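Summary of Year 1 activities. Much of the first year was spent building the evaluation harness for sequence design. The harness presents a backbone, in tokenized form, and records the residue chosen at every position. We chose the following record to illustrate the format because it has been used consistently in internal testing since the harness was completed.
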């Protein structure tokens, strides 16, 4: 296996006049968990469908384990465990028939693991797929993806619409799975708490543009909240390229700054505040601030 399991270079996808994915580049090494976050319609599913060979890029390239998902369709799909947002599978089958069917599709299918996950997820092998609850259907889709023993797991909103207990169970099983098998995971979500819990690296997508892509802790450190106190009211403060937004509160100004360098500190200190308080932000706050900032640029 190469040093990059997923390699996306200058990828663009257009649907008529709509640019769904706009010139994004992402590289993911083996054994990493990559969290792809963005609002609904940001372009996450389009990117995943290109990785799966279900869509052709308008320009740029996407490679999985060095392979072209369209030209090397069978090779790529045999080495990927995929869970789509709609958890697509044959609803007329029973659970045990779904396992048998997929066991014959994937060369690395691990029946022992499949049976263990069946018990762990408390799935009834005699149950019809169409009779499963949304949570049980999500568990079955994940079981199939994991039991195929893939090199890469690609998950599109794996816990969307599920109750908190089922979400927690699925996330814990994924974390355990990665620990056991060192599988690379590419997963999209608009649920930031699960990305924060799982991901090693994070990419934030807004209207098809990749705003930031880096190690999770670096992404969280890339934006700071700064509260400036002044002895007398200031009606405004000068704008600066490092300030994403600013807001007046009584005699204070609250600034959200990009923390890539120290320029913002020099700028804000030049305003002679009586006090300057610097605060960390959660991943959810960082996502929200970058997304608001990107929308103001449009």
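For this record, the design step produced the sequence shown next.
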């Amino acid at each position: 296996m190469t040093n990059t399991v997923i390699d996306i270079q200058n990828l663009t996808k257009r649907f008529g006049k709509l640019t769904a994915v706009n010139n994004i580049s992402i590289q993911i090494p083996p054994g990493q968990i990559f969290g792809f976050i963005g609002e609904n319609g940001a372009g996450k599913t389009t990117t995943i469908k290109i990785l799966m060979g279900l869509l052709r890029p308008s320009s740029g390239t996407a490679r999985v384990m060095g392979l072209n998902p369209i030209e090397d369709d069978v090779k790529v799909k045999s080495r990927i465990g995929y869970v789509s947002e709609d958890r697509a599978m044959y609803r007329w089958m029973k659970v045990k028939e779904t396992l048998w069917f997929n066991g014959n599709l994937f060369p690395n299918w691990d029946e022992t693991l499949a049976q263990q996950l069946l018990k762990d997820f408390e799935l009834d092998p005699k149950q019809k797929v169409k009779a499963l609850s949304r949570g049980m259907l999500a568990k079955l889709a994940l079981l199939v993806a994991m039991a195929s023993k893939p090199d890469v797991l690609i998950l599109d909103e794996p816990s969307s619409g599920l109750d908190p207990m089922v979400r927690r169970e699925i996330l814990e099983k994924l974390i355990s799975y990665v620990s056991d098998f060192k599988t690379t995971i590419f997963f999209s979500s608009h649920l930031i708490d699960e990305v924060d819990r799982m991901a090693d690296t994070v990419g934030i997508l807004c209207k098809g543009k990749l705003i930031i892509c880096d190690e999770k802790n670096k992404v969280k450190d890339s934006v700071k909240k700064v509260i400036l106190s002044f002895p007398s009211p200031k009606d405004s403060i000068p704008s600066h390229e490092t300030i994403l937004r600013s807001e007046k509160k009584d005699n204070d100004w609250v600034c959200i700054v990009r923390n890539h360098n120290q320029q913002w500190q020099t700028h804000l200190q030049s305003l002679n505040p009586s006090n300057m308080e610097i605060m960390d932000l959660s991943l959810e706050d960082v996502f929200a601030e970058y997304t608001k900032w990107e929308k103001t640029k449009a």
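The chain has a mean pLDDT of 90. Quantitative recovery figures across the full test set are reported in Table 2.
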